[in-house]
Amino acid sequence: MTVIDSTPVTPPSLDACVSVGTVHPRPDGQDRYTISEVAAFTGLRAHTLRWYEQIGLMPHVTRSHTGQRLFGNRDLDWLTFVRKLRLTGMPIADMVRFAELVRQGEATYDERREILEQTRREVVARVAELQDTLAVLDSKIDFYADARRAPEGA
Questions:
Q1: How far apart are CA 98 and CA 121, in angstroms?
Q2: Residue ranges of the HTH merR-type domain (predicted)?
Q3: Per-residue pLDDT reduced to its tens digit, 107-127
Q4: Residue 120: C-alpha distances to residues 35, 85, 91, 130 (Å)
């Protein structure tokens, strides 16, 4: 006779900075990935993942009984967020500080929000600069297109 434990498993609460509703590579419920699988899923090198763990950006990676790193869906969510922070231009040191605040819990929500709001202001300023640059490029492209169409000697 087989006995099945039907006790529901309650996952740890998700931090607000972790993506909710993300489609994971293994939607069948399997929640363990090797470092090479995570590298393939994320596009990050295994060396980068080890370094993130070493500097405290991903300190919660579990290990198998043989010492192999085992990543979960929550780790994949965190890496998605970290990659977005990298795209904002946030320095690694600030990202590590943010990760430390996450580990400290809800008491740091205000400080985390301030960091994200400052980052957002910087991104908005960069977007405005890029839009201005795009307008200059468009103007130059139009100039050269018009010059090409204009008859010589006109």
A1: 17
A2: 32-101
A3: 999 999 999 999 999 999 999
A4: 31, 10, 14, 15
